[in-house]
Inverse folding.
């Protein structure tokens, strides 16, 4: 044992103190145990309140002022992690049972067999040490969970709220994280007359993914403001993310630039599922994939872009694979076909309605099956 | 995940089947790298039996590929199912890692 345990002995018989000091002298000299003594329950409580370093109580039952069974009831109020061992008369099962019910860890009987007492004390203290270790692991876990939840709040807080709804365009966006901290994000921002739209998915989950997500988002927004064309923006962001990426994280995303005055949408894709176009008449088509690679894995990748003209009533759906790979209880994936079926012949009357329809259909499909990936969807509609 | 491998000369063909996602991606990398011998110059990963690969799985393949590239060894994958092939095509990984239709084609490659 590398620490000295302090044991409070409570007994009104004056003989016990010299006896214990004599029989335990080896342990006392080796600094394994230190003993303090009290004559009754009241005195015991006074000593416990005055000295928070006491680890264990060894108490007689019959004592004046306050007996051992009453003392047992008081112990949790002083320190819930104290361990108590009761000294009882041989065969006094009633008192022993009461003591155990009141939280005594063990008991020894009179006349005290000191070999038995040594074993009992050492078992009790071993248990206490394990208990303290468990408590400290629990505290660490709680601290870690707190950090995770802070990270999750941070991540949620950088997702922009209140997407724009004007007479020229409507945006709606939502992200449902699978674990505390996920790797998906969306973004929308005004660039002069135009609107930049992003849906992204970082490889893997947890804290590292969320840190990579934060830097991806900042790099993208910075490039969007400075560079202009979506394909050029992705080339710039890819090189930035690749420069210092020892863990081979990567992010797949769509960056689209919408011009509300003309209805034209120019997008570039980095290793991501292409957007879906729902025409005003309820026809659903997958927009063409552009040339590109997930961002951050190789330098000097060339990205291309496509432009599509949105007619009034057209909706574009940007999503992550959390939508298409959502699983139900039979391990079937939601898939692109079911996503298209959400809108086939059923053109949404607002961006918000379109977004809510996607989440509702995915939820209904998945049922009680656990969500394994973040689910993100951004919808843009030209009224 | 299940693995087997077949070595002839300096060519190692590893066959992997099952699913790779965030829960077993690091085991996947460890098993894969455990099969490499210093003498192997060409490693072909046959993914014909792979049903699903997530982005965490792609990341592991990327790590293996870069690792072998640094040792000037060749790494390629082959025999992708349609679903896994789509993942490689959409993510653009088919532009980063050599992909062949079959083991034979990879050996010619």
């Amino acid at each position: 044992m590398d620490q000295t345990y302090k044991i409070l002995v409570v007994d009104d018989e004056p003989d016990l103190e010299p006896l214990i000091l004599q029989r335990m002298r080896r342990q006392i000299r080796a600094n394994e145990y230190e003993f303090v003594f009290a004559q009754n329950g009241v005195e015991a409580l006074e000593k416990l309140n005055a000295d928070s370093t006491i680890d264990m109580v060894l108490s007689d039952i019959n004592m004046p002022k306050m007996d051992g069974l009453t003392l047992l009831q008081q112990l949790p109020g002083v320190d819930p992690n104290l361990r108590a061992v009761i000294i009882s008369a041989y065969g006094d099962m009633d008192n022993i049972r009461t003591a155990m019910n009141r939280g005594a860890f063990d008991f020894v009987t009179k006349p005290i067999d000191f070999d038995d007492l040594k074993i009992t004390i050492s078992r009790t203290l071993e248990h206490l040490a394990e208990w303290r270790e468990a408590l400290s692991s629990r505290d660490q876990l709680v601290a870690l969970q707190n950090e995770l939840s802070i990270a999750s709040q941070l991540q949620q807080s950088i997702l922009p709220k209140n997407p724009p709804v004007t007479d020229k365009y409507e945006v709606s966006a939502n992200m449902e994280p699978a674990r505390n901290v996920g790797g998906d994000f969306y973004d929308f921002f005004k660039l002069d007359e135009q609107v930049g739209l992003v849906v992204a998915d970082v490889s893997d989950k947890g804290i590292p993914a969320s840190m990579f997500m934060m830097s991806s988002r900042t790099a993208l927004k910075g490039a969007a403001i400075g560079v202009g064309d979506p394909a050029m923006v992705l080339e710039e962001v890819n090189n930035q993310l690749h420069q210092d990426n020892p863990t081979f994280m990567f992010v797949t995303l769509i960056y689209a630039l919408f011009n509300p005055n003309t209805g034209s949408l120019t997008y570039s894709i980095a290793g991501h599922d292409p957007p879906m176009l729902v025409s005003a008449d309820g026809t659903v088509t997958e927009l063409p994939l552009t040339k590109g690679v997930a961002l951050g894995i190789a330098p000097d990748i060339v990205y291309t872009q496509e432009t599509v003209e949105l007619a009034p009533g057209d909706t574009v759906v940007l999503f992550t694979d959390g939508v298409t790979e959502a699983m139900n209880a039979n391990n079937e994936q939601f898939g692109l076909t079911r996503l298209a079926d959400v809108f086939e012949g059923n053109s949404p009357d607002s961006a918000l309605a379109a977004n809510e329809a996607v989440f509702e259909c995915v939820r209904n499909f998945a049922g009680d099956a656990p969500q394994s990936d973040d689910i993100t969807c951004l919808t843009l509609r030209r009224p | 995940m299940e693995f087997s491998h077949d070595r002839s000369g300096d060519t190692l063909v590893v066959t992997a089947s099952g699913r790779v996602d965030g829960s077993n991606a690091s085991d996947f990398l460890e098993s894969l790298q455990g099969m490499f011998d210093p003498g192997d110059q060409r490693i072909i990963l046959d993914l014909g039996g792979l049903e699903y690969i997530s982005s965490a799985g792609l990341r592991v393949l990327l790590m293996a590929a870069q690792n072998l590239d640094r040792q000037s060894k060749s790494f390629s994958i082959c025999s992708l199912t349609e679903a896994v092939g789509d993942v490689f095509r959409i993510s653009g990984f088919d532009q980063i890692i050599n992909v062949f239709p079959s083991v034979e084609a990879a050996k010619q490659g």
